[in-house]
Amino acid sequence: MTLAIQTQQLRKEYKGRAVVQGLDLEVGEGEVFGFLGPNGAGKSTTVKMLLGLVRPTSGSVRVLGGSPDDPAVRARLGFLPEQFRFQTWMTAQEFLNFHGQLAGLKAEELRTRIPTVLERVGLGGRGTEALGGYSKGMLQRAGLAGAILAHPRLVFLDEPTSALDPVGRVEVREIIQELRREGVTVFLNSHLLSEVEQVSDRVAFVKAGEVVRAGTMNELLGGALPVMIKVDALTPQLLADLGRLGQLEQQSAQQVSVMVSGEEAIPALASAVAASGAQLYALTPQRHDLEDLFLELVGTSGDSRQAALTGRVA
Amino acid sequence: MSNVLLMARLSLSEALRKKLIVVLLVLTAAFLGFYLYGILRLEQNLTERAANAGLSAGPRRGLGALPVVYSGIFGMYLVYFLGSLMAVLSTVASVSGDIESGVMQSVIARPVTRAQVVLGRWLGFTGMNVLYVLLVSVALLTGLYLITGYLPPNPTAAVAQILLGIVLITSLTVLGSTLFATLANGIAVFVLYGLGSAGGILKSIGALANSPTMESLGNAANIVMPTNALWLGASYNLQTEGALQLAQVARGANPFASTTPIEPGVLIWAAVYTALAVALAMWRFSRRDL
Q: Do residue B110 and residue A53 have CB atoms under 8 angstroms apart?
């Protein structure tokens, strides 16, 4: 796996307080990587170090095989900042033109590229309006257009859907999937766990500036799977049959939870119910999702306790 | 280099788009109109009085020329003051404003060095401020000449020294903008400007009272902030022989004008100081967290 991002023992202190400590991250090229953690865990600070906006106190950062301090490396990066604040006196077209020129795109290329990206983020035909008149959601879309404008190889999206409605969120998810198809690495910082779960290949949980768990979705969420079964009546025979497939936890006279090894065991459960002659009302795999894992790993909200422990993280 | 020019152009179009330039030009035109109208009435008065006294309507000499000379000096003093104010206010948020609003993050994430961003901002604001002060200076002196037929002895040298002062103030404001928050920067540069003027006053009183201590204090203030020394250098070039002689008799008891040309050392220091401020701003901004 070629690495798009690699950090070793990355550390950042503000006034002696460590916001990021000993962070080891590896993101492969072409991956959609979800970076999760409570408020104040050091996520945005990490992104800023990966972009060269913030200097690490110690440790090393490699992005696309080089240092983010190197403009040639930054030429291949796209970034949607969490606050998506831009020059409000510009029109969206001027904003993209300015950023395209900064990124080194030629004028003739920008003429075709700008309408394309505006169309792609759902702002087609709105490019001549001043950003000052944009809604929050439109501004975030304009920022996303800026992030993908210069054909980046690695895109950082910091809370990319915080200002968007459900339709906008689906559209952003589609854009992320499109980027993945083009082989672009996406580093996704988000609180919206279901969203991360739907698009990410791998995720890392960060807490108090350290990675507490990282892996593919399958590694994190695979393994034992509780399946809830509801029938008209649980006979001892049926319970015995189900008991051979997995550990049982009877919840009522009609309902039982069976812990099986994985999805491949589900058909066998259905067959056992059918063979017993019971009337089946529900058979629901209760897959763990990222939210369960998040709560398990992180425990408390970042705003309450953690924030007090680790201090400010911009 | 193209990135520097891009940032400079951004500063200019921002000033244009935010109506800064329009407001400034309209208000400046009002100021110039008001001041030149005053000079026009002065000229009419003087001509009338000369006619009543039965004097020929020729060029005024000696003390008779002083009112017009002074209207030139103090007009240019106002131009310099307005220009300094404009230099600080237009530039005060040049870097800090973009940091505070968060705009800077998306700019710095592009393949542009931070030194280029600072240099580009400096170039844009310096260009705008220099052009503005040059324009107002030329307008004022031209108006003065058209109304009274008088032009100060060495207007080019005077305007050049005024412009150096404007460039220095702009540069220090850009530097402050990489060091402090916008408001703190504005206060800091104005206090420095005030210090420069205080130095000029101390020096002038020191010369009158023959007090070397006060003159040393004035010199120290001129080193910390040479803007007032630059103005005094300019004022020397705006005075006629007669005005200079009168001021010498008064032993320089006028802190707004100088009877001696600027020392070359001060000129060189002002230029070096300007370059140092820009270099320090580029260096400082390159190592701060955003």
A: no
CA–CA distances in Å: residue A198 to residues A1, A153, A213, A295, A298: 22, 21, 18, 18, 20
By the 8 A CB rule, do A239 and A217 touch?
Answer: no
Closest CB from B6, B14, B289 relative to A102: B6
Do residues B214 and B203 lie in contact, with contact meaning Cβ atoms separated by under 8 Å? Answer: yes
What is the ipTM metric for this complex?
A: 0.84
How many angstroms away from the CA of A231 is the closest CA of chain B?
57
Chain A residues close to B20, C-beta within 8 Å: none
Interface check for A163 against chain B (CB to CB < 8 A): the answer is no
CATH architecture of A3-220: 3-Layer(aba) Sandwich (3.40)
Give residue limits of the domains in chain A: 3-220, 223-285
Q: Check B6 against A71: CB less than 8 A apart.
A: no
Give the model confidence (pLDDT) of A163-188 as tens digits: 899 999 999 999 999 999 999 999 99
Nearest to B102 among A85, A98, A103 (CB): A85
Question: Which of B10, B104, B105, B288 to mutate: most A Cβ within 10 Å?
Answer: B105
The CATH class, in words, for A223-285 is alpha beta
> A234, A256 in Cβ contact below 8 A?
yes
- Would you say residue B259 has pLDDT above 60? yes
HSE-up of B195 (CA within 13 Å, CB side)? 16
